[in-house]
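Researcher: Sequence recovery benchmark, item below. Answer with residues only.
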């Protein structure tokens, strides 16, 4: 604790933009929003661990440094002990000199290791940092993020959907009941629709939709999508958002 000159102290008694707060990262946690976010994240992480423990899952720690491109769909960050000058050497020479004797990367997923462990332990999950070297400035892409990945032996798609729905509802209840004050701050200042959205998640079972039926609904919607809808193609974010937010009203 100490004196804070009100004329020069970066945090004032007003709302600051996230862009401005990024320039004073050492003070950002003292704001109401970032304090609430940190407490919520801590509570939800502990609730998730408790949920998996209660349902017979073992928490496993999969490698962060790996030679495996687990998903094969995104760019990976390469890890090397070589100097910039050595990085220009022929591939065989680089491999001889590098720390692992071969190319290594930051993991994009612990799934491959978790699948192997599930075959031995039955039910496992990973919860740790993953990395994607994708140049995409959207809310769905981040260079570093924490991801939970459960794996179950002798489970089918129905089991997988049941687990996902039950876990999500458990975490929503935890956020609304355990962190009511912090949750209320977000509902008041960040997203006024948040309480209704989360209450809707708890109110009814999730809609489970076969792919063919989803394509039929999208085709008959009359909406003009950026990515055309056709049977056999992957559904894009805009298709998923129409189905969940408009056609099924958030379910």
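Model:
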């Amino acid at each position: 604790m100490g004196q804070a000159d009100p004329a020069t102290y970066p945090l004032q008694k007003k709302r600051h933009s996230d862009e401005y707060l990024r320039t004073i990262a050492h003070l950002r946690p003292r704001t109401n929003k970032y304090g609430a976010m940190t407490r919520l994240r801590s509570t939800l992480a502990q609730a998730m661990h408790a949920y998996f423990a209660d349902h017979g899952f073992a928490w496993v720690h999969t490698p962060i440094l790996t030679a495996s491109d687990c998903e094969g769909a995104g760019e990976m960050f390469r890890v090397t002990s070589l100097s910039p000058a050595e990085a220009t050497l022929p591939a065989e020479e680089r491999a001889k000199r590098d720390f692992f004797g071969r190319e290594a990367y930051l993991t994009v997923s612990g799934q491959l290791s978790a699948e192997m462990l599930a075959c031995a332990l039955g039910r496992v999950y990973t919860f740790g940092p993953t990395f994607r070297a994708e140049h995409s400035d959207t809310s769905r892409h981040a260079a570093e993020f924490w991801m939970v990945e459960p794996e179950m032996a002798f489970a089918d798609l129905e089991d997988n959907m049941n687990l996902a729905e039950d876990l999500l509802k458990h975490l929503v209840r935890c956020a609304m009941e355990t962190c009511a004050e912090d949750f209320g701050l977000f509902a008041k200042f960040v997203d006024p629709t948040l309480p209704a959205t989360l209450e809707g998640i708890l109110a009814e079972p999730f809609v489970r939709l076969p792919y063919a039926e989803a394509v039929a609904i999208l085709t008959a919607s009359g909406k003009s999508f950026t990515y055309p809808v056709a049977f056999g193609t992957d559904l894009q974010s805009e298709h998923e958002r129409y189905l969940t937010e408009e056609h099924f009203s958030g379910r």
